[in-house]
Amino acid sequence: MKIKIGVSNKRAYIWNVWDIARLRVEYHISGILVGTLPGIQQQNVFLGPPLLLLPEEAWVLVEQGVAQFVDLNDARLPTNDEINHYHQHKLHQIELEAQETKARNSKEPVLSDKDVQRRQQKREERAAAKSKAGFMFETDSTFTQSSPIPVDEKKSRLPNTFTITVPATSEYTFDNDNLIYSDLDSARSANVWTYPETPLELNKCRVFKDLWQRGMFMGDGIRFGGHLLVYPGDPLRYHSHFTVTVLESMSSSIKPIDIVALGRLGTTVKKVHLLASYNDKTNKVDYISLEWAGFGT
Fold this sequence. Notes:
This protein is of the alpha+beta class. The chain folds into three domains: 1-75 and 172-195, MutS, DNA mismatch repair protein, domain I, CATH 3.40.1170.20; 80-106 and 119-156, no CATH class; 197-297, Trna Endonuclease, Chain: A, domain 1, CATH 3.40.1350. Helix content is 35%, strand content 19%. The strands form two sheets. The protein has a six-stranded mixed β-sheet. Strands 7-8-9-10-11 form a five-stranded mixed β-sheet.
């Protein structure tokens, strides 16, 4: 089943929490969580769904057939009747699960009366042995020994609580399927998703795809002076190794001062800065790495 990417004002969002986990585990797409948590709204340190995707991430997912675009601008909010029907359906499912759990537990073998009496007798013998081996107190002592509370064996064998799994997912509300676009051309013709629009943006998508196919995780590289930030694995476990600046073509001119700045910046933040562009002759992405040698300066 394809993952649904909600598009609103040319931005790509993932709302389903299972899709967010699936993208991270199976397709090494991390994105950025931008939603506030219902319990602690007055903070922006720990965020939740939706997941905001980079334009390149959304492009490669749809181009590879993993996901499809959904036009959220024409989607509607559910009515009160639909919300009530949804909650009634969920409550009905929870009740059915509780009944099934109770039925499974009731099928456990029931002890006979003789077995129950035998267990009760052994319990009393152990309690008597403990009382003889313990300390002896005077009758006026502040310590008193309470008799054991009788236990109903039949009731004790039945669980008092049930564990019910309630899904924390949300679905879109559609009146028809005309809001779903499974390829880039149909989304572009409907003016739902128009990225990339320039040769530079197209090259950024091609470079992203090449690194993504190599198993890399990517993030926004603006904090480190590039277009992309490249991680060898999940960003929660690894530091980024590369920053990437994408050129419109390998013949694009670049000033020497910019080369020095990018090389020094990459070395300062302990990363290798890459210049990348798509080669139309070889149909491959070419990379040039910049590392500041220093030579004592």
